[in-house]
Amino acid sequence: MGRMNGKNTMRLQPKIAGLIVLCVVVATLAVAQAPYQPKFPGDPARSDSEAQALGYMRTVLRAQKQYKKKYGKFADSLNSLVHTGSFTKRMAAIDRGDYKVGFRSKKDGFQLTMTPQQLDAQHRSFYAEDDGIIHAEEDKAATDSSPAVK
Fold first, then answer.
1. N or C: which end of the chain has fewer CB within 10 A?
2. The pTM is what?
C-alpha cells in the first residue's frame, strides 16, 4: 500500500465521521424498536414510559404513607410531599415525559392519576388513591373501578 499524504487523510475523515453517525442512528433505531424488557420479576409495565410512570406513582404513594404517619393526615399537594421519603422538589412538576400527573386532595385522602399524551397498549392511564392500589386502563382514563395493576 502506498503512503497516505495529508490530502487523502483529510478526505477520509468526513467519510469515517458519516459512517459513525450512520452506525449510531441504526443502533438507536434498533434499541427503540426492541421489545420492552421488564425491570424486575413481575414488572407490570409494558414500556419504559409506563415503568417510569408506575415508579413515580409508587414514590408518591410511599411518601403519602410516610407523611400520614408523621402528620396524621395525607398531604394536600405534591409540593407538601417534598422531602418526605425520596420525593424531591423536582418531582412536584406535573410534566413527567410521556405522562402528566394529576393530584387531587380530598377529605381524608387523595387521588393520583398519570395520563399519557397518547393512550395505546404501551401507554395506559393510571389511577391510585389512599388505599395504595394502582389501577390501569388502555383506552380511557383510569378510575378506582379500573382493573388493578398486577
1. N
2. 0.75
